[in-house]
Amino acid sequence: MISSTVELAAFLRNRRERLDPGELGLPSRRQARRTPGLRREEVAELAGISVDYIVRLEQARGLRPSVDVVEALARALRLAPDERAYLFDLVQQRPRGTGKPATTAAPSLARLVADLSPRPAMLMNHRYDILAWNGEMTRLLVDFQSLPPSQRNVMWLCLMHPGMREFYVDRERVVREGIAHLRAAWAAHPEDQALTDLIAECIAGDEQFARLWAERDVKVNGRGRKVVRHPEAGEVAVEFETLKPLQDPDQLLVIYRAADEESRSALDRLFARGPVTASGGRSAEPR
Question: Which domain of life is it from (predicted)?
Answer without folding.
Answer: Bacteria
